[in-house]
From TrEMBL:
Keywords: Isomerase. The keyword Isomerase applies. Residues 25-226 form the Xylose isomerase-like TIM barrel domain. One of its GO terms (molecular function) is isomerase activity. Gene3D superfamilies: Divalent-metal-dependent TIM barrel enzymes (3.20.20.150). This is Sugar phosphate isomerase/epimerase. Transmembrane segments: none annotated.
Amino acid sequence: MKPFPIAFQPYTIHKQLAEDYAGSLEKAARIGYRGVELGRPPEGMTVQEQKALLKRLGLQVINTWGGFNSLDFDIEETANYLDEVNGKFVTVSMLFDGSMEDVLRKAREMNRIGEAFRRLDKQFLYHNHDWEFKKIDGEYILDILLRETDPEFVKLEIDTYWVRRGGEDPAAYLSKLHNRCPLLHIKDMEPGEEQFYAEVGEGILDFAAIAEVAEAIGTEWLVVEQDLSRRDPFDSLAISYRNLGRLGLVQQ
């Protein structure tokens, strides 16, 4: 099975980052992570200082967040930041009102934005939650988005936890996304009705099967994220990374 470069989504440690930005990134890098999904630095730090910090830590910015439930953001400014930090991807998530009209309108807007990013040599991604697995006229919202967006302009950052919470098997759903899921959020789920977040390899998801499909469809990075944890979130990041190593999925 192919090993992957492993990144982390800093929402996992967002409270710690707010208190100690550099120190928190350093703690995550010490675990072994090679990439991070990051935006512009906090007040008081320049992008050049951020770049120097990341270089010292051996962390590559692979993706930045375009926004949540809004497609109204500065495309050129976002692309300029990615140029500064040698990043490639920008990701959004959206809410939907349950109507086909709403989904189709947002798909058209994503095509426009994705084409603009492509002209700037960047790739626009859509990150799912579970609500995209609600159906309109018998079809998942996420499947409608896939059908109505250009695969060159709009790709996905699938989240394994949210696919499972939406009622689908993550490996099976991934299998139909050839060359359309360059980044994969890997997140596990505890057994039981609560469906609480778990460290990768500590829950019910089959990450060996997920990784096998990810390799087949051309996924470039695995990205660890855990929205909430029952322990110190740095411990959660470490457990997930260690378990990925045990599966042979960590690129050295």
